[in-house]
Amino acid sequence: MLVAGTTSDAGKSVVTAGICRWLSRKGMKVAPFKAQNMSLNSYVTREGAEIGRAQAMQAAAARTEPTALMNPVLLKPGGDRSSQVVLLGRPVGEMTAQGYHSGRQERLLDTVADCLAELRRSHDAVICEGAGSPAEINLRRTDIVNMGLARAAGLPVVVVGDIDRGGVFASFFGTTALLAERDQALLAGYVVNKFRGDVALLEPGLEMLHGLTGRPVLGVLPFRRGLGIDAEDGLAVSLGGAVGEPREAAPLGSDVLRIAVVALPLMSNFTDVDALAAEPGVVVRFTARPEELADADLVVLPGTRGTVKALAWLRERGLAEAVVRRAAEGRPVLGICGGFQMLGERIEDDVESRAGTVEGLGLLPLRVRFAQEKTLARPSGRALGEHAEGYEIHHGVAEVTGGEALFADAGGNPLDGCRIGSVRGTHWHGALESDGFRRAFLRAVADEAGRTGFVPASDTGFAALREEQLDRLGDLIEEHADTDALLRLIESGPPAGLPFVGPGAPEARHAGASS
C-alpha cells in the first residue's frame, strides 16, 4: 500500500510508521519503503548504506533491520538547485533539479520497482510512503515515488491530510480531481490527521466527501503532541523528533543545563540532539544569533551538507567570533561531523564547495581534506569510561595532530574525534543516544560550565523512549483507523469501480504509464 499526502508534512511518515507497528503487532513481517526521499537527515545501515532517517525509524516501527532496499533513491540538497544523488545507499554524483527531472529520475523506475519487488517477496506487507503530493502535475511524467510507483506496482493509495492546517476537505477533493483517470482508480481512501475536538462534528463533512468522491475516510487520527519521527527536514520536528517534545519532568538538581545548537545552513542530522532534549533538566534550543550563545552552557555545531559555506555564514553573522570567545573562556563547545571540521585549523575542499583551502576556526589541532569517496560507517568505542556507538556520513578526512581522542577502542587506541580543554569534536553521529556516554558527557559539560547543581537522570533510556513513541503511533492506527479496510487494501489491492472525479489531469507518457 502507498501512503500519500495532500502536502509535504501532512503526516505520511508518521502514518506509515504507525501502520508498520500495528502490522508488526499482528505478527506480520512488514517493511517500509520510500522510493525517493529528499532529506539531509540520513542514517547508515549495518550494510554500510545511506538511507533517510525516517525510513530507518519506520523500520524500527516494523521491528526489522533497515536496508538500502527501503530507500533506493536519496537526494541530499546542496543548495537551491542541486542535490547529491544517493543510489542504493551510495553517492553517484551531483545533479541539478532540472537534470534529474529531465530524464534521470524516470530511468530509475526499474531500480525502484526491483527494490520494491524484492521486499514484497521477503515480507508479508510493504508500506510505501509517497513524497510531497501525488497531485504535483508538473512532475507526474517522471514520477517514481507517488502515482508513478503506484501504477507501476498496482498499489492501492491512501491519502493523508493535515486538518490542523485547515482546508482538508478541499485538499482531498482537489488532490483526487487533479489525478489522471487511471491514477484515480488506485486512490482508495483518505486519512484525516491531527484532528482536535469531537469527531461527531466532522462526520457530516466525511459523508459529503464520500458522496463527492466515492471514497471513504479510513481514519480520523487525533492530534497528539510529540509524535513526529525523525524529520526529513525542518526544525519544527527535531526537538519533538524521535522522543516527543522535551520531557516535562522537573530537573533532578537545582540547576538546568542550557544547550544552544547553531542552526547552520544545510544543517544535516540535527536529530543528534534529540537524546539531549529527552533528558530532564536539559533545555535545547536552535539559534542563529551570537548573543544567544552567551548564556548557553554548551554550544553545538551540528552537521551540514555545506561545511565551507556554513563556516563563511558563521563568520558573516558574528557566530564564529562568539564560538572562539567561548573556547578562550574555557566554556564547552561540541562539533559534530561538519561542525567538527569547522573547529579545525584548515579545510581543503575540492569536492563539496570546490573552494580550495579555507581556514577553520582553529580551536582543534585538525586538518580536513575532502575526498571524492564518502565515508559510511557504523563505529563503536569508548569515551569517558562508557561504551558508545554511532554512524559516520562524511567526505571530509580528518588528520588530528594533537589533543586527546574523543573515542577510543577497548585498548585505548584512538578511533575518532579530538578534545582540547572544553572543546570537543567528532565525526560520529548518534553517539549521544548511548545512555551511559550521554550521562557522562552531560556531567562533564555541567562541571566545565559551573552548573554544579545539575544532576543527570540515571534512568533515561533513549531506545526505550523511541519504542514508547513507536507504540503510540501503532496505538493511533489501531484505535482510530479502519484497520479492517486497511488490511483489505493490503491483501487485495485497490477496489474495482472507484468513480472518476473530474476534471482529472490529461493522460501522458510518463513513468508507470504503460503498466
TrEMBL record:
Pfam families: CbiA (PF01656), GATase_3 (PF07685). The lineage of its organism: Bacteria, Bacillati, Actinomycetota, Actinomycetes, Kitasatosporales. Signal peptide: none annotated. Residues 258-435 form the CobB/CobQ-like glutamine amidotransferase domain. Catalyzes amidations at positions B, D, E, and G on adenosylcobyrinic A,C-diamide. NH(2) groups are provided by glutamine, and one molecule of ATP is hydrogenolyzed for each amidation. It comes from Streptomyces marispadix. Keywords: Cobalamin biosynthesis, Glutamine amidotransferase. It comes from the Bacteria. The active site is at residues 337, 429. PROSITE patterns: GATASE_COBBQ, GATASE_TYPE_1. The keyword Cell cycle does not apply. The keyword Iron-sulfur does not apply. Pathway: Cofactor biosynthesis; adenosylcobalamin biosynthesis. PANTHER family: COBYRIC ACID SYNTHASE, DETHIOBIOTIN SYNTHETASE. Belongs to the CobB/CobQ family. CobQ subfamily. This is Cobyric acid synthase. Residues 2-231 form the CobQ/CobB/MinD/ParA nucleotide binding domain. CDD domains: CobQ_N, GATase1_CobQ. SUPFAM superfamilies: Class I glutamine amidotransferase-like, P-loop containing nucleoside triphosphate hydrolases.
